[in-house]
RNA sequence: GCUCCCAUCGUCUAGCCCGGUCUAGGACAUCGCCUUUUCACGGCGGUAACAGGGGUUCGAAUCCCCUUGGGAGUACCA
């Protein structure tokens, strides 16, 4: 096992988001590609919004996608302790205390109103909206410590060094943070919980995280984290800030863009491999420019070098296409068992294995989802009362069509078997062609209309032998009327 | 506002790091044609992009600067 240790660190404040799934996938693939370890850490320090139920749902969705972690709350490595931040509070406090002792952090008793006023004042004066309270001056620290010793609740603020920082990001390259970018920031809230930019660093450091692969929305935050690493004298991991997903309006992908949580796609029976495949296409590219692949195909070739640096627009059309391609790659037995899990597949399930195979071979050309199979079976095979559409009316208007219909109705009456064979159909076709002198379009469209009640569809020679004769009889009878 | 990041077809992208092989390649979508004596299959093809301006160079999609545009951050959220 290599020294590569990566993590996905979601907040359990909602369902697993498409964007979250994408970063999780990239971390997972990088671990696989390097023989490293993929860690799941739960960042539940926002008490108001965090919810254990969401944690469970997110983990379920990751499992569904086939993104499995090596370490996590359910698979702890004793060396690294617990994997929920809410269970590591003593650790954060311990390091915060160290920072205070070294003068790199201080207690801050400012109220919300004072903070607001500070910001408003800075805005008016055109200065940087940074903390300028009295508590940052060491002259007040003894007083602060006494108040804390007396049991007063207080936030702990990190004393941001006035200097610029540089980051060599694996995706963005060299990033320079000017020295006035951030002011002193809170690391421990007055309710005793740590803030993201602080506990994230403590955990990444303590969990020996080697590569931080995350969304670009964290790129600006990173300077705060760099400061903490420096104050702690900790070794820096590599960073890779992946560009964000955007919607059709080019804004950060969010709920108002429609289906953005993974569970929605799961409910609509998208194939998990297709989801992963498509997510890889957004912001990462296959070295051989392949579009369709499995996660496991990437285990040997996934690399941080092939990320694009600009936001990618999430496009449902292409996702659907990818899903269809994965559907076509499935073996017939696998596909059949997936289809039988869909609702309304009673008819399908009752057929013979030969029928199922032929049906799947025929319909998978037209299907994008497994849910399309029952729909197609209902529409193409079981529907006894096809709708009289405009194209169908046109075909009915041809002078040869009524003759074809009455001929076929007559022939159908003589059929006693439950299915027609391809050979029997060919005899009828031959008759219409030779004895009735109908050929080409009127022939095929006429017979199709008579037997299917549609103006288009799969090849008749494959479709008709799958359709019950009783259904064919009803359709013809309806058209004759 | 300030700061950071980014910029190739409508969309996802290859190419950029290491300038010539790029009259810029692929995929989705779209359009057209062909074939299957029909059509929703299949095959072939078309439309369509280096944001603009300067510079460096014999030569720039590729390197530098500016402008414009887009994204993100600016919390006791993550």
Q: Which descriptors apply to this entry?
A:
481 residues, 3-stranded antiparallel β-sheet, 21 helices, RNA-binding
Question: How does this model look, in words?
Answer:
- The chain has 21 helices and 11 strands.
- By secondary structure, it is mainly alpha-helical.
- The strands form 5 sheets. A 3-stranded antiparallel β-sheet has the order 3-4-7.
- β8, α7 (222-232) and β9 (238-242) form a beta-alpha-beta unit.
- α17 packs antiparallel against α21.
- The protein is elongated.
- The protein binds one RNA strand of 78 nucleotides through α4, β4, β6, β7 and α6.
Strand neighbour order, sheet with most strands: 3-4-7
Radius of gyration, in angstroms, nearest whole number: 32 Å
Q: Give the fraction of residues assigned to helices.
A: 40-55%
- CA distance, first residue to last residue: 74 Å
Given the structure, what is the number of helices? 21
Main sheet record: 3 strands, antiparallel
Shape: elongated
% residues in beta strands: 5-15%
Oligomer description: single chain
List the topology elements.
Blueprint: E1 5-8, H1 18-34, E2 37-40, H2 52-65, H3 89-101, E3 105-108, H4 112-125, H5 141-149, E4 155-158, E5 165-169, E6 173-177, E7 185-188, H6 196-206, E8 211-215, H7 222-232, E9 238-242, E10 245-246, H8 262-267, H9 272-281, H10 295-298, E11 312-313, H11 316-329, H12 332-340, H13 346-350, H14 353-363, H15 372-382, H16 390-397, H17 400-414, H18 422-434, H19 440-452, H20 460-463, H21 469-480
Parallel strand pairs: 1-2, 8-9, 10-11
Antiparallel strand pairs: 3-4, 4-7, 5-6
Helix pairs in contact: 6-7, 9-11, 12-14, 17-19, 17-21
This protein binds one RNA strand of 78 nucleotides through α4, β4, β6, β7 and α6.
